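Same chain as my last thread, 116 residues:
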Amino acid sequence: MQFDLKKSRLDILIIIGFAVLSLLYCYPQLQGKKLRQDDNIHWQCMAHEGMAYHESTGKDVLWSNSMFGGMPTFTSYVGATVTNYAIYIQEFLQSVGKPAYFFFIAMVCFYLLASL
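reply #2:
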């Protein structure tokens, strides 16, 4: 397999075009407007008991007594830190902000799948 400089330049230009397109499409986000995300608010409420227990004891709680009369907390909060490099990529992309980076990832993934 040989490296094609013209093809790689085209791929880079297309990805840059996707970034510009996603920022233009999500322009209200750049103006400081935000979507109301009730799921994130509800997640924080569900994870509050586990976060408080982890902060006070340093241990992870595996069961919550407040959600639905008892529910495993690994679905809402795990206090242990994990080395996961995908988190670093996500933090980099989140510097652009939601939903623009979701749209960018969707376009790049579609391009990769379509070019195979």
